[in-house]
């Protein structure tokens, strides 16, 4: 009973944080069921009729085409990043060689490069390769900017894996390739979850590359599609809220499923072995 009483302040703090962080999502969800005029006259009130006009408008504007474009680009980019970053992190975390630390520092410096400074060369390169206005043209930059943070997370996590596992495998004649895929990689589940969710969120919400490297509605992603709700003299706020509600569902569902592994991966990555 005493332990329960001591935890009451923590529970109250958790409820307060939940209310603060959840209230914007709740308001966004309710606003999506309002009409444009109702929102203009009473933006903070409860919806009177729970109109589905905003969701019908999403179908008319081919919202789900933008949705699937974002899904395709995000999933492909994240999967490739996981495998490249994990393989790049293995020698940095488990092998000793002269350039180990300089290479790791280069990846850390890569996290500091502003995206906007690379727009012109990336646009030129994408255009020269014939990938302009294609989903494949977005995958390359997304992978490049996701690799630095992913390598850092994987490297820090791998350093905490006991070396006894590696030594036992080597005694049994296991090569580095088999050692990585059969022993190390299966232990990276928390780090994989962390890298997946972090990069998925970043790519899903990315706007500037999608704006620069695409020009047609067939290749536009969700952030670009939201511009359809901006008119010359007005903005369809309920429509935007409906689009954001549906666009947030994949992120929320994936996070709720993998939240324990994400926390474990972040905690492990923050401790040096």
Helix content: over 70%
Structure summary, number of beta strands: 0
Beta percentage is: under 5%
CATH superfamily: MetI-like
Give me the number of helical elements: 13
Q: Whole-number average pLDDT?
A: 86
SSE succession? HHHHHHHHHHHHH
Number of domains: 1
User: Which spans of ≥5 residues are poorly predicted at pLDDT below 50?
Assistant: 269-273
Structure overview:
The protein has 273 residues and is mainly alpha-helical. The protein has one domain (57-269): MetI-like (MetI-like fold). 73% of the residues lie in helices and 0% in strands. The protein has helices at 2-31, 36-41, 53-60, 63-94, 100-110, 119-128, 135-159, 163-171, 176-184, 189-204, 208-213, 222-225, 237-269. Helix 4 (63-94) runs parallel beside helix 7 and helix 5 (100-110) packs across helix 7 (135-159). The longest helix is centred in the last third of the chain and has 33 residues, at 237-269. The radius of gyration is 23 Å and the shape is flat. InterPro entries: MetI-like, MetI-like_sf. Residues 67-258 form the ABC transmembrane type-1 domain.
Keywords:
273 residues; mainly alpha; MetI-like fold; 73% helix; 0% strand; disordered C terminus
């Amino acid at each position: 009973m005493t332990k329960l009483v001591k935890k009451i302040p923590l529970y109250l703090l958790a409820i307060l944080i939940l209310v603060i962080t959840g209230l914007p999502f709740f308001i966004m969800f309710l606003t999506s069921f309002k009409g444009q005029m109702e929102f203009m006259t009473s933006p903070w009130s409860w919806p009177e009729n729970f109109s589905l006009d905003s969701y019908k408008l999403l179908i008319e504007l081919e919202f789900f085409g933008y949705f699937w474009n974002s899904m395709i680009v995000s999933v492909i980019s994240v999967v490739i990043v996981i495998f490249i970053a994990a393989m790049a992190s293995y020698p940095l975390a488990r092998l000793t060689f002269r350039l180990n630390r300089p290479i790791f520092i280069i990846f850390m410096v890569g996290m500091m490069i502003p995206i906007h400074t690379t727009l012109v060369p990336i646009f030129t390169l994408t255009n020269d390769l014939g990938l302009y206005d294609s989903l494949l043209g977005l995958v390359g930059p997304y992978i490049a900017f996701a690799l630095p943070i992913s390598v850092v997370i994987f490297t820090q996590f791998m350093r905490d894996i006991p070396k006894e596992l590696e030594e036992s495998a080597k005694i049994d004649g296991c090569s580095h390739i088999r050692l990585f895929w059969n022993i190390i990689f299966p232990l990276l589940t928390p780090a994989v979850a962390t890298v997946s969710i972090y990069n998925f969120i970043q790519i899903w919400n990315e706007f500037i590359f999608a704006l620069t490297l695409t020009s047609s509605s067939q290749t536009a992603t969700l952030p670009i599609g939201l511009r359809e709700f901006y008119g010359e003299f007005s903005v369809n706020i309920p429509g935007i809220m409906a689009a954001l509600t549906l666009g947030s569902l994949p992120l929320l569902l994936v996070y709720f499923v993998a939240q324990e592994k994400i926390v474990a991966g972040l905690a492990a990555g923050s401790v040096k072995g």
